[in-house]
Design brief:
alpha+beta; 32% strand; 25% helix; Aminopeptidase; 197 residues; seven-stranded mixed sheet; 5 helices
Length: 197
Amino acid sequence: MPPETTTRVREPVTTWYLEMRAPGALRRARVPQPAPPILRAAQALPMFSRFLYTAVGGHWHWRDRLGWSYARWMRWLDRPELQTWVMYVDATPAGYIELEKQAGDDVEIAYFGLMREFTGRGLGGHLLSVGIERAWELGARRVWVHTCTLDGPHALANYEARGLVRYHEETKIVERPAAPDGPWPGWDDEDAGRGGG
């Protein structure tokens, strides 16, 4: 597991569950110009997937996979039910969406997001639109996702703008480190030194 910070907080965290039950419910976002390529990472590569996970989620308290070993990552990735789609801007990975086909032909958007440096350009809506299309191509009966108050501030609005509808909500008290883990140890000190993102 990742090293713990000395300061921890307890707070209520609300989680929203959303779903889409027909391909026609998708409201596609505007395609940025030039259109960024979104390519499937077809080879199971734990170090690449861990890079995406920490680069996107490090600022938003994504913690559940930080302690995964190479073997654990490989068990997760090396399955026909799992697809990872990566958006590239100027040949640089900018964000990703991870899809998992589950029992009953549900497809979960397991992870989705952009690196902080690429937000605010209309890229997230486009990536999510393409990801939902790919989920339906997997033979989905429904597409679903959950997000919470520890995710990026625009996540819920983006899901709803694309046509996903809330079907459940819950709030629990969660104990967590006061600051996110970041993409690498010490990132917060370096980030503060350069004036933030």
